[in-house]
Amino acid sequence: MYADSFAHPDQFVKIVDQPTPRERMIQVVRWYLSSYHAGRKSQVAKKPYNPILGEQEVGDGPVPWCSPDQLSFVAEQVSHHPPISAFYAEHVNKRIQFEAWVWTKSKFLGLSIGVHNIVPWIELGGSVVIECVQTGHKANIEFLTKPFYGGKKHRVTCEVFAGADKKPYYTAQGEWNSRMDGRWTDSGRSEVLFEVSSMKARRKRVAPVSRQQGHESRRVWRHVTCALRGADCDAATAAKRAVEQAQRDAVKARDANGEKWNTLLFSPKGDDGWEYMTPLSKRVPSAKTTPQHKNGETAENTR
């Protein structure tokens, strides 16, 4: 799912092409908010492929077959309890990289008692802050959940500030899965921040399953995927249980031998963070990084 954050690689690499800090920050916001729809095409709650410890997703690199003019992506499940996913992306020629670690917290907001045939839906709700440590520019983003009666789903508002300014120089609102409109405060100029219907998502390129390592996602879950494609839910459930039981057995074996799990692509950073072991910024000193984003209470809300 996190690889889908780069379903519009053109929006990501355009960040470094913007001439001013303000325009770069708005492009970061445009890329960030327009990325959600690619990985969340369904509006109902479904049982996911639960990532297993050490599982990896490798798309277009950083791997030997990736060229310097491609956006590359890798991810690893670095912790199972709590569930933490770390991922990294880079474009060598544009000298831009991105790294993040995510832990998901779900909230059940409840269903009306006595109402039958309700299908739960997924919503994003909470706050996100995107901040550039070099310039002090900051975007405050609010994902607004739908009330039980009235209102719309998937609404988002955003205010972008420069330094310690109390007045935003840019505001935006709309729905992350359809369209958001923005407005420059000083000039009053309005614009379409993005419109999903006019944006074509780029498909990920990965190695064939037969050439993947045993810990890569499509190889780990290949039997589950095959069963789902054949509409065989019983076989999919059995295959999923087999993967999860193998994980439990591996944990017991490590505990019995006094062994610890060692991550392959990411290493701990500070008290609660993770970083890619060989980022572009270490290999090419002039590489740029995107502004950091801090998740507040952002969660997947299930109704």
Automatic annotation (TrEMBL):
Pfam families documented for this protein: Oxysterol_BP
Q: Which UniProt keywords apply?
A: Lipid transport, Lipid-binding, Transport
Q: Extract one GO BP annotation from the record.
A: lipid transport
Q: InterPro entries, from UniProt?
A: OSBP_sf (IPR037239), Oxysterol-bd (IPR000648), Oxysterol-bd_CS (IPR018494)
Provide the GO MF annotations for this entry: sterol binding
Q: Does the keyword Ligase apply?
A: no
- Residues forming coiled coils: none
Q: Where is the composition biased (Basic and acidic residues)?
A: 294-303
Q: Does the keyword Metal-binding apply?
A: no
Q: Disordered: where is this region?
A: 276-303
Query: Gene Ontology terms, cellular component aspect?
Result: cytosol; Golgi apparatus; membrane
| Family to which the UniProt record says this protein belongs | Belongs to the OSBP family.
Name of the protein described by the UniProt record: Oxysterol-binding protein
List the source organism.
Spodoptera littoralis (Egyptian cotton leafworm)
Q: In the record, what lineage is assigned to the organism producing the protein?
A: Eukaryota, Metazoa, Ecdysozoa, Arthropoda, Hexapoda
